[in-house]
Amino acid sequence: MSLKVVSFIGAIALFAVAAQTGARAADLPLPPLAPPPIEEYVASGWYLRGDIGMTNQYFKGLHQRLYDVPGTSVEAVGMGWDSSMLFGLGVGYKINDWVRFDVTGEYRGKSNFHGSDNVRFMQAGIARSGVDNYSGSKSEWLVMANAYVDLGTWYGFTPYIGAGVGAANIRISGFRDDGFNNAGGVLNNSTAYAADADKWNFAWAVHAGVTYKVTQSMSIDFGYRYVDLGNATTGATRAFDGSFTNGGPFTFNHIYSHDLKLGIRWMLEPPMPVQQPMMLPPLIRKG
Question: Which domain holds residue 127?
Fold first, then answer.
């Protein structure tokens, strides 16, 4: 057999072996593709907020210096405030998914006051009785610095708690006292007006609520707040007929409110994606 023939046969054999090896390699499964990196969004940075809501206001009692005259007793009847709207704006900073802070300014609209008291007093050594019917209105400006703790997120809902401190400016306006008394069997009536007045107080609050994340930048806030506003006073009281010119101011002791609020928070900085490290598939050895 010549050398050319031997070389030709050898080339055919090598080609056959290579083809068989390639066919076996084609039958092996391809290695799995690496999963795409997981992106988690961490929302931190500055945000703006706006709130609207309803106030539910109470106080501990009404007082005026004439109540302290010896022989005088006063029984309050049905005193209270109507609900009113509140409107607030604020700016805050979200540190992470757990802690955030903000500073808010709020106007609490006029709330009408109504109520009466039964009065017993001594006049010329004779016991008298009477009734006073009160009316007026109250409004506030409230500035607060607040801190919140978010308690985790489920299906987009994040419950939270918080606390705040600040200052409240309470304004009493249009206060009126319509009085009736029985003196010696004669029914007398009188009307007194108090000058408008405002007063700054230390204020504090506690918060609770739930936030719903609409987008990565916008959230809706459903909140409850207890806020302690301090005392409020009217100006000096004056009778319409000049029977007295300065009866002293009325004081509303310890005003507080249970507020319900609906707010929107808007992140000023886009959420930053945090990429998890890529996980490579394990190596598989055969043989």
Answer: 39-269
> What average pLDDT does range 5-10 have in this prediction?
52
- Coil, strand, or helix at residue 173? strand
Residue 197 lies in a domain: yes
CB atoms within 10 A of CB 83: 15
Torsion, CA 257, CA 262, CA 263, CA 264, rounded to 10: 170
Q: How confident is the model at residue 124 (pLDDT cuts 50, 70, 90)?
A: low
Q: What is the pTM of this model?
A: 0.76
Query: Residue 180 belongs to a domain with what CATH number?
Result: 2.40.160.20
Q: 3-class secondary structure for 213-264?
A: ECCCCEEEEEEEEEEEEEEEECCCEEECCCCCCCCCCEEEEEEEEEEEEEEE
Residue 2 lies in a domain: no
Within 10 A of 229 (CB to CB), how many other CB atoms are there? 27
Examine residue 4 and state whether it is found in any structural domain, yes or no. no
Q: How buried is 172 (Cβ within 10 angstroms: 0-12 exposed, 13-18 middle, 19+ buried)?
A: buried
Residue 277 lies in a domain: no
Give the pLDDT confidence of 30-61 residue by residue, as tens digits: 556 555 555 555 567 999 999 999 999 999 99
Q: Which of 19-28, 159-168, 225-234, 266-275 has the lowest mean pLDDT?
A: 19-28
Nearest to 206 by CA among 174, 265, 163, 166: 163
Count the domains in the chain.
1
